Amino acid sequence: MQMIEAIIKPHKLDAVKTALAKIGLLGVTAVECKGFGRQMGHTERYRGAKMDVGFVPKVLLKICVKTEDCQKAVDSIVEAARTGEVGDGKIFVTPVSQAVRIRTGERDEQAL
Amino acid sequence: MQMIEAIIKPHKLDAVKTALAKIGLLGVTAVECKGFGRQMGHTERYRGAKMDVGFVPKVLLKICVKTEDCQKAVDSIVEAARTGEVGDGKIFVTPVSQAVRIRTGERDEQAL
Amino acid sequence: MQMIEAIIKPHKLDAVKTALAKIGLLGVTAVECKGFGRQMGHTERYRGAKMDVGFVPKVLLKICVKTEDCQKAVDSIVEAARTGEVGDGKIFVTPVSQAVRIRTGERDEQAL
Amino acid sequence: MLRRLLASRATPMFLFALMLLAGGSPVHAAAVQPVEMLPLSNLSAGDTAWMMTSAALVLMMTGPGLALFYGGLVRRKNVLATMMQSFILMSVVSVVWAVIGYSLAFDAGNSFIGGLRFAFLREVGAAPAEYAPTIPHSLWMIYQLMFAIITPALICGAYAERMKFSAMLLFSIAWLLGVYCPMAHMVWGKGGLLNAWSGGQFAALDFAGGTVVHISSGVSALMCALMLGKRRGYGKVPMPPHSVVLSVVGAALLWVGWFGFNAGSALSASPLAVGAFVATHFAAATGALGWAFYEWLKSGKPTVLGAISGAVAGLVVITPASGYTTPMYALLMGLAGGVFCALTSTKLKHWLKYDDSLDAFGVHGAGGTLGAMLTGVFAVAAVNLPTAYAAPAGQVARLGWLEGNHVVMFNQLVATVLTWVIAIVGSLIILKIVDVLVGLRVGEEDEYDGLDLSQHGESGYNLEDAFSATFAGGGGATLLQEELQVVPAVSHH
Amino acid sequence: MLRRLLASRATPMFLFALMLLAGGSPVHAAAVQPVEMLPLSNLSAGDTAWMMTSAALVLMMTGPGLALFYGGLVRRKNVLATMMQSFILMSVVSVVWAVIGYSLAFDAGNSFIGGLRFAFLREVGAAPAEYAPTIPHSLWMIYQLMFAIITPALICGAYAERMKFSAMLLFSIAWLLGVYCPMAHMVWGKGGLLNAWSGGQFAALDFAGGTVVHISSGVSALMCALMLGKRRGYGKVPMPPHSVVLSVVGAALLWVGWFGFNAGSALSASPLAVGAFVATHFAAATGALGWAFYEWLKSGKPTVLGAISGAVAGLVVITPASGYTTPMYALLMGLAGGVFCALTSTKLKHWLKYDDSLDAFGVHGAGGTLGAMLTGVFAVAAVNLPTAYAAPAGQVARLGWLEGNHVVMFNQLVATVLTWVIAIVGSLIILKIVDVLVGLRVGEEDEYDGLDLSQHGESGYNLEDAFSATFAGGGGATLLQEELQVVPAVSHH
Amino acid sequence: MLRRLLASRATPMFLFALMLLAGGSPVHAAAVQPVEMLPLSNLSAGDTAWMMTSAALVLMMTGPGLALFYGGLVRRKNVLATMMQSFILMSVVSVVWAVIGYSLAFDAGNSFIGGLRFAFLREVGAAPAEYAPTIPHSLWMIYQLMFAIITPALICGAYAERMKFSAMLLFSIAWLLGVYCPMAHMVWGKGGLLNAWSGGQFAALDFAGGTVVHISSGVSALMCALMLGKRRGYGKVPMPPHSVVLSVVGAALLWVGWFGFNAGSALSASPLAVGAFVATHFAAATGALGWAFYEWLKSGKPTVLGAISGAVAGLVVITPASGYTTPMYALLMGLAGGVFCALTSTKLKHWLKYDDSLDAFGVHGAGGTLGAMLTGVFAVAAVNLPTAYAAPAGQVARLGWLEGNHVVMFNQLVATVLTWVIAIVGSLIILKIVDVLVGLRVGEEDEYDGLDLSQHGESGYNLEDAFSATFAGGGGATLLQEELQVVPAVSHH
Ligand SMILES: Nc1ncnc2c1ncn2[C@@H]1O[C@H](COP(=O)(O)OP(=O)(O)O)[C@@H](O)[C@H]1O
Ligand SMILES: Nc1ncnc2c1ncn2[C@@H]1O[C@H](COP(=O)(O)OP(=O)(O)O)[C@@H](O)[C@H]1O
Ligand SMILES: Nc1ncnc2c1ncn2[C@@H]1O[C@H](COP(=O)(O)OP(=O)(O)O)[C@@H](O)[C@H]1O
Q: Across the interface, which of B14, B49, B54 has its CB nearest the CB of D476?
């Protein structure tokens, strides 16, 4: 199994969820995060004190998939999450040696 | 070493922490997250506009353990986190190639 | 490629970001988290009800780097994040099998 | 335990109460004259201005005052439901009051309850009633309504975070008619049993509602806490206030509004009103210091929650005395109230092991009782002398215990005990009935999810724009077609 | 669609309106006498006290009342911009009012608009004007200013979350002069077309601003919603209130402040003021119940947002009637308002598919219209009889429809229709002009980032200390050198 | 630097001040007559109603007004401690005032300080004192108390986020007695050195507290900022307001409450009060516009924080003039205040490099000083003429500079300089003493954790139900056994 970690723009979350659902991947865990990279932040002023907020709000998705589904999943995430502008985000894939469904104790691929 | 990532119901956090402490695992990092899966969300209404909130609040635990402790840890998490109802969550295990304790610079198993 | 996951004290975030920038690592994803470990929490009282808050706010950094840059990155994080006091945090390194830049579809090292 | 005990004792206590009532009423029912109406020429613009202001201030105590104070003390998932309890009572009580509540409280009737002359606000118009000779009768009615609103709202503090919305409504309505109206009539109503100004048998001193408002609500709150039982997880998981910030704002508004509550009870823009205003302020001040310094000594840190709770405690204690005592005595009474309520809300509660969620009893029940007794101690004839204590010609009038008047202490005691009995018996009976009708508590799941979601289908805060604004269609928060035409939400399974 | 239609029809409607005006004005311009000033000896301290209090209460309705009510209903990223709209209007409208607005509204002039006698507040001093014979002229002026402030502020609810700050300012100023001042003059100004107290042709009943304030703002709000179009994503992504908690506080303050709005409109601390006070309270109470119970029946749960919206709806409906009807009728009117506005704010809005973000039309436009008509139905001569309806000697006076006075219904209808026409035409013209000048809507990116950031460069909440306090220098939120000497921010690329 | 300088200069300045005092006092100590008491027949219900309302409004300025305004501007971790500073002062100052403060300020005494006649509120009852002939003496006392509460509370803005709670209490008490009471006596007390109404040597105009309240608190705030030094990380890490939302609410309440502050200072419901009411409102309006438009021009965006800060600045500037000038001049003064304080709170502060956390000096010190001088410029004899400036028979009275009265400018200057000197010297001495006694600043760890936790053991918000409600027993937030019987918390190591 593989763990897909995708960092995307928050307003793309819906599109990605839908794309994954289309290929039968319904289990996803989402985490709010802040990203640093090429994309610039914004500026705020309070009584003349100027503040440059350098990070950008992002959402980190964790999706554990069967190795054979991995490529398909990555591709559909890329497709759904792309806007073509800086800051679209990244996808990282890492191997998963074991998975368990807590409710049933089922292991590995049955657990997904 | 192995990184155990457990997605559990928030109100089980305490039980899981205690269970891990029992087997001598005291280091844990917890992250608030939102889960999508079989478990259904809830509905809210504001001036007649009905909203179906599809995600469920979860907590993601990251626990890095010696490989030999891994099975024991996974089992006690499963035991402590189970309610038997949909939404109990998942556990994923991934290999860790290196660990460092920042304070001392100690490496790998000494770092845990 | 390697995924560096560093759990650090929130007020060290800036120093670490700067240290990484110095060695040319500009892409970072940060997540707020709560840590349990040797470092103690604090106590609050509300109308006599005493509460011992056992966790400590931390920040989890995820940085995906080329394998050859990994050691350098880890070392500069350790250096920048160290205060010498309990609670400085941990660094964990896990292998990454694939990386994708969503905007361009570039793969692996080009994607970082 | 205590709960079962009370339940089992309900009937005998009730009978005892009935006897008490029976004892007095027939004798007096006859004697009481109807409420007199006075000519419009009596009206004073200055008094009318102040009393309209006071009525507005007292309403502000409930909303937003109490709604914020209580709303901040509950957990995030119950904030709206808790604020709603205050807000909806502003509505429900008003309707009941107009239909019959006011009449039961302030028409002459017997020593225990008023008649129906003023039902549907008949004869409640521009002409002043003898209760407040210089303002329109309808202003007196609406001013009293504001008291009738906040009293049941105070009880919410005891059943917060676990009572059904429907049960809370039924309870409040029944409690208003069954406990509040009789109490108001006995203490302030013409010919009331405890009315020191119009020939009550026991001339009790209660300027602005120590017994009627605070003891009655506080003791009833204790009954609610006992009957409903503890919140799930109480004592095991912490239940910290989700925003003491809101509570500080609420407490400050309560303090400000209380000027309308106490100084308004003079029913005129007179030196008496000013005296009550001053006493009120000083008692709030020392109440806050009392509680905060008690904590400082005991646990090393004065808490903000302690300071604001103490201010409220001081205000509760001074309420019955505000129009009868001096500024300096007020400083003492407030201090006593702050320390005393700190003890009842921490030590006593944990010792007796009931879950009075927001200390409605600890502050209002305990503080009200202390205030009723201290009022007897510190009352000063020179400040304000009820007809019942008028001195025989040539003799100097004595009002408070310190002035050498002992009978007042007895009357205060009677009033206090009677209020406790009526509150206990009335509340237990009403709670039992409501429990049978709709059930008092929400289910386990509902309590766990929080009352905002389970009772009202809302959440108090949607602060994560990312999540509330983007999880549409794909299973996140999404507008269903029913109301809005949207791209059909993808079904997941 | 509807939007295009309206745009295309603007000119003819405008001409029709002009004719209407023309029809009346010449005839009357002559007839109207200048506003009379009275001697200082007329002043009443009691009335002055109450009216200063009322003015303060009405200002409190806008800030913090409305700012909180609306601010809580928008998404987190727009909270400050929304509160700013209320706050800045407290400033801008005041200046315009002092310079010329007050004069246009309350100098005699013709049947449609006042003259310039009071421009720059000339002759607006201590001596009472005939409008309010027992208080200083300047108090009447400032009291009326508070109305002029809240009226355009109510419109914000329709264009919230998408209008440019600059456009919003220009629109509000033009709207004040082009719609509000004429309306105020016609209904309350000396010789106004609809003024039932000083020889208006159509003697309409509007005690505290049902037409002038609520219909005019509510209908104009609808125009804004139509001209600006929907918020991006409306109907696809949910847009839940970011903090109903704030809205509950705001609603409660509106309720309290409304006593100054309605009871203050009696311009004295008199029984009439008290009557309005009582009616106001009861209508708010049943309004809340009406909306909440409607939801309870329809969807199984009474919402807190529903209850507070209903209270406001009840207050809107009673506004024109508050000084003309009885408490019991007020209970009915409030109830009707609560249910009716629940329908217009949910069903109607979704059916016609316009995005009235916070239901400014649904509550104020619809509720104001209902209130204007119901005022005709439930007015009671015995409560308050305008000179226009004085009965011939010997006959009993009739005011409301229920009392058998049918002509009042016709006058209410004329007033209502005329207000709708002026609001529609005036708003459309002003919106078009502003659109040409600066553009009405913010750009897509700006709307997505939120108005707080794009219009004001701030965010409402910085709750993550970790992130706001530590991301300095290294690219996070950092003080640039410009203002403060700091270690140079590391540049990233 | 500046800090050391000031410290070293403290003694000479103090001596100079002493000389100043000495200069006047002996001469006058004799001359001053005791404060006269008037018969009850003087009382006016209308005036009493307005003054009770005003007292309530001024208290509302501190709590919740200032508590919200300041509380929103600090970082999340200091919100409660900051609100607590306002709240606890409502308590502490009241006690000090009752015991001796009021007497020192308003008993006759000499030109600089009052005597002890009114200590423990002796003779402070229903009979009016000459200060306010138509209301009870005790109402005048409590009204003045509300001023004594908010003045030290304003200083909190300078030492926010780093001062010890204990130090803050000691400082405030000493400051009240050592700086506020003398200032109040000099300007408003019978025979005060600067009192234009009862034979002060320098007849300064200060209607509602420009010198007494704003300059004295603002300048003392600057001293606090200098003595305490900067917050750790100031200028390196950003310290954005954690919730401008709270601050907007606070500012709006300050605006509303200020009507009680300024119009109340007329001590009657008179045209003078109305004039002050009107001037107050207009100055707030243009103040907001001034600051916001300055930002708009300078940095391209008007901020909400700027608008609310400007409103407060406008209110500060108009305070001394509110009862002496016209609405149109008020518009100008407010505008000047908004722009001027925008400069002092941004440019000046950064240029001099002191950390006046919430700009207590930038707004109150600077604005108060500007206001004092502008009052001399824009005062109008026709509005309100102090006895000191009464014109010889037959001649027309002149008050302001624009009316050709130059001496008033000199008196304003003397009053301003004297206030600065007393504030600087008094504050420095008190701060040094408190520093020796308990230390002014919290430790580094405590400052880092935040004052809420370190000083009060609480946190302002517990919004993460997950974490606050589930981390029990297992090391998370858990009720220790001490108070509640719980499953023992698992110890970790
Ligand atoms: N090397 C990296 N490791 C972890 N996260 C990264 C890395 N590089 C980028 N990211 C994340 O991806 C987001 C988008 O990257 P960015 O450089 O801004 O734009 P793009 O993806 O278009 O190149 C960043 O905000 C950050 O959260
Ligand atoms: N394939 C997956 N990858 C990542 N997280 C998952 C995956 N499947 C489920 N989850 C997480 O586990 C949680 C529980 O899963 P769910 O299907 O709701 O119930 P159950 O675990 O009982 O099958 C989900 O809310 C989600 O956070
Ligand atoms: N085994 C572990 N797995 C995951 N996170 C850990 C582990 N041990 C510690 N941590 C994280 O590191 C943080 C610091 O660890 P702690 O024991 O408090 O101090 P130190 O790092 O100095 O030993 C903890 O708060 C926790 O977030």
A: B54
Cross-strand partners of A99: B92
In contact, D201 and D24? CB cutoff 8 Å: yes
Helix axis angle, F304-318 to E79-96, nearest 10°? 40
Per-residue pLDDT reduced to its tens digit, F383-416 = 999 999 999 888 999 999 999 999 999 999 999 9
Residues in chain A: 112
Chains that touch F (3 or more CB pairs under 8 A): A, B, C, D, E
The Cα F2–Cα F272 span in angstroms is 43
Q: Is the peptide bond before B95 cis (omega within 30 degrees of 0)?
A: no
Quick check: E269 contacting D, CB < 8 Å? yes
**Residue C66 forms contact with A (CB below 8 Å):** no
User: What's the pLDDT band for F493 if we cut at 50, 70, 90?
Assistant: very low
How far apart are the C-alpha atoms of E87 and F339, rounded to whole Å? Answer: 18
For the Cβ of C24 lying below 6 angstroms from any atom of ligand 1, the answer is no
Of residues D450 and E32, which shows the higher confidence score?
Answer: D450
Interface check E359 vs B, CB under 8 A: yes
Token digits of residue E118: 């009071």
Token pair belonging to D365: 């029940």
Give this prediction's pTM.
0.94
Going by their DSSP bridges, the two strands C56-65 and B98-101 should be labelled as unpaired
Quick count: other Cβ atoms within 10 Å of Cβ F457?
23
Which one, of C56, C25, C51, lies nearest residue C40 by Cα?
C56
| Cβ D101 vs Cβ D176: under 8 Å | yes
- E346: which 2 tokens? 């949910």
CB E408 within 8 A of CB E378: no
Chain segment D68-101, per-residue pLDDT in tens: 999 999 999 999 999 999 999 999 999 999 999 9
Task: Quote the crossing angle between the two packed helices E165-175 and E137-159, to the nearest 10°.
Answer: 130
Residues of B in contact with E301 (CB under 8 A): 45
3-state helix/strand/coil string of F334-355:
HHHHHHHHHHHHHHHHHHHCCC
Q: D63: distance to nearest CA of chain E, Å?
A: 5
HEC-encoded secondary structure of F275-337: HHHHHHHHHHHHHHHHHHHHHHHHHCCCCHHHHHHHHHHHHHHHCCCCCCCCHHHHHHHHHHH
Touching check for C50 and chain B: CB below 8 Å? no
Residue E37 near residue E123, CB atoms below 8 Å: yes
Q: Is A108 left (phi over 0), alpha (psi -120 to 50) or beta?
A: left
For F424-434, the pLDDT digits (tens) are: 999 999 999 99
Q: Max CA-CA distance within chain D?
A: 92
Distance CA F106, CA F183 (A): 11
Q: Would you say F383 and F377 are in contact if contact means Cβ atoms under 8 Å apart?
A: no
- CA neighbor of A48 nearest in space, from F347, F288, F312: F347
HEC assignment per residue over F450-471: CHHHHHHCCCCECCCHHHHHHC
Q: Which ligand ends up closest to the CA of C70?
A: 1
Contact A103, B82 (CB under 8 A): yes
- Give me the residues paired with residue B53 across strands: B42
The distance of Cα C51 from the centroid of its chain, to the nearest Å, equals 28
Mutate to test the pocket of ligand 3, among B28, B32, B96, B109 (most ligand atoms within 8 A of CB): B28
Q: Residue A33: left (phi > 0), alpha (psi -120 to 50), or beta?
A: beta
Q: Check CB contact under 8 Å for E473 and C14.
A: yes
Which phi and psi (to 5°) does residue A101 adopt?
Answer: -95, 115
Radius of gyration for chain A, computed over Cα atoms and rounded to the nearest angstrom:
17
Question: Which amino acid, F130?
Answer: E
Q: What is the DSSP letter of F177?
A: I
Binary contact (E476, A11; C-beta < 8 A): no
DSSP state of E118: T
List, run by run, the mean pLDDT of 10-residue segments along chain B (112 residues): 94 90 93 90 89 87 95 95 93 95 90 82
